[in-house]
Amino acid sequence: MAPGLPGSLMKLVAACAISEDHLLSPETTFDCAGSVVVNSQTFHCQKPHGRLDLIHAIGMSCNVYFAQAAQSISPNLFLEHARAFLLNEPACGIASGPFPQKAEGSPQSYILGLNESFKPHALQLLRMAALIGAEGDLPLLHSAESPPDKPGSTHLQLSSNTWKILKQGMIIARENGTAKNLDPENKLHIAAKTGTAPHGNTFQSWIIGFFPFDKPRYSFCLRASSGTSQDAAVPQAHKFLLASDWPT
């Protein structure tokens, strides 16, 4: 259960901060021409996305949008929302991946999931996806082999508008965004988010999500140790999810 840089999965945490703390209107747009310079650092997207609001920026995983939106999010505020999603807490009895004791680095390094001090593992990210699908009310996550000593649950209270933003952004990602090849025939009605981060001389990638998006019953997280999300994580998750019959 090796932890790793989460990449653009952390745009979900950033979007939560933007909405919950009223930092920007969700209707505020930024124009993506493919790159942007913020504080002397250049941020790139794979292609120009045009003018995007928050929901569509999640779906397209637009670095240009979030690099600019990050100027309204302090690293400490980002980490506060990361804690709300329990990204500093154990999952299924497995200790948390690295989580900073204090914020160091630019807000963009956290929001784009590239800060070396912050590396959640797959079960923590699975729990985050499940929390979004369940809108904050989740039974205690545990291994079937090691049931908890006593029942418990997780509760994350966010506004209905914030849940809508996160879920709609993840639906757009599966429909025509970065996860559009995950379930192109929409058989499982998935909501998803991808993330890619440097890993040595190559990349590692993630995809998380839940389904069916109208009445979630399942959540998933897959990490590809080599390759971008569109080249590796999405195709691998497609093979796994579409090869199974899921009880309804």
How would you summarize this macromolecular structure in one to three sentences?
This protein has 248 residues and is of the alpha+beta class. It has helices at 11-20, 54-60, 63-69, 75-84, 107-111, 122-133, 160-176, 229-242; strands at residues 30-32, 35-38, 41-44, 50-52, 137-139, 153-155, 191-199, 202-211, 218-224. The protein contains eight helices and nine strands.
**CATH level-two architecture of the domain at 7-140 and 148-176:** 3-Layer(aba) Sandwich
- Could you tell me the strand content as a percent range? 15-25%
Our count of helices gives 8
State the total count of DSSP E strands. Answer: 9
Helix content: 25-40%
By secondary-structure content and strand pairing, the structural class works out as alpha+beta
Principal-axes geometry comes out as globular
pLDDT averaged over residues: 92
The CATH class label of the domain at 7-140 and 148-176 is Alpha Beta
Topology pattern, helix = H, strand = E: HEEEEHHHHHEEHEEEH
Quaternary state of the chains: single chain
Give the full name of the CATH homologous superfamily of the domain at 7-140 and 148-176: DD-peptidase/beta-lactamase superfamily
